[in-house]
Automatic annotation (TrEMBL):
The chain holds residues 236 to 645 of 645 of the full protein. Keywords: Cell membrane, Membrane, Transferase, Transmembrane, Transmembrane helix. This is LTA synthase family protein. Its main location: membrane. The keyword Transmembrane helix applies. It is found in: Cell membrane. It comes from Paenibacillus mendelii. It is an enzyme of class 2 (transferase). Belongs to the LTA synthase family. GO terms for molecular function: transferase activity.
Amino acid sequence: AKQWFEERGNLRKQLESDKLFGAYKGSNVILIQLEAFQNFVIGQKIGGQEVTPVMNKLIGESAYFNRFYHQTSQGRTSDADLAANISLQPLQSGSVFITNAHNKFDSLPAILKEAGYAASVFHAYEGGFWNRNNMYANMQYDYFYNKKDYKMNEPLGWSLGDESFFQQSVDAMVQEKQPFYSFLISLSSHHPYSLPESYQKLDVGELKDTIFGDYLQAAHYVDSALGHMIERLKKEGLWDNSIFLFYGDHDNSINEWEPFESFLGKPLTDMDKQQILKQVPFIVHLPKGANAGLHEEVGGQIDITPTILHLLGISSADKVMIGTPLIMEKPLEGKKVVFRNGSYTDGKVWYKPSNDGNEANSQCLNADTGEKMDLNACKGGGEEARTELTVSDNVISYDLIKQFRKQQNP
Ligand code: GP9
């Protein structure tokens, strides 16, 4: 495992010669993880209304990744957090936040603090959920703003509405010494998505009172709350000196495809469904709207921390991380996104490992059409995917980062 991570670190080292390495040195970082937010709603309309008008507009002045994937497993929201802030794969079962909260990790907040940043995490729910209290202390956040720190002035669903959650979180950011890292985890768009009638601003027609219709309403509400947060950041003078990023944590667990098809206005192939299930948006707004544009190359949650560190010019060459930076002058060739079940995609192929352990029964599919391809086209990649999962599992299960560091400084 040590050698594998050293090689990955060397690759990131080479990428430091890229022009964007350090281009946003010293900026604040505001990263938002949106609950169950999938990519398929972006740019779509229902009943003539845009589902995500704020995001659609923001995309015009941001880097937007439309082939970006969540890499979660059973640990759901906590797995997304692990991938995004620690750049390791989740375990096959359980949640690393619960099973390995006392490990040594190279976390984004810890690295940023070493570089002189303040680091806080915000989530308006019980601090003990997903063992966050312990995990966040270990990740070295200065402070975890949880339910007890918020005024419950907009009770909604499990807790506080995102509108108020975002505003109260900015209240805290304004007080923070700069530069700061703020990580926010939203909650209002949690399954089963039903919002009070007065919150349902979209006319979803016959989807009204279905779980899918409710999901669209929830996405619309989150989009609007995010818009108000952006206005507020501008007013507080934080917008132009911050890197503002958000992504979805995982799929929405709506397992019937008919409403997706009627919403998207087309029948969906198996590959379409696969892509929809795994794709979450990743949108990066850089100060002054610089480096905006559509990125069609693949990326995943594991790449978020390396991307942020690259833009800030903080080397991650000696850190135990899987990901590679996604915002560079020239995207990395041969980039692959590996999923917990051993699948991977590079944008051209989609590899599906067999369930019976017999590689001959694995499938290599065209990532656009789903057409079967010669398995050899996925062979090397399938092996790389297995290795990535194994080395990540070993690092987590045997707390190897502690040992690596002991070997470096005995
Ligand atoms: C609760 C929230 C929900 O704090 O993060 O997590 P999920 O059920 O989506 O994993």
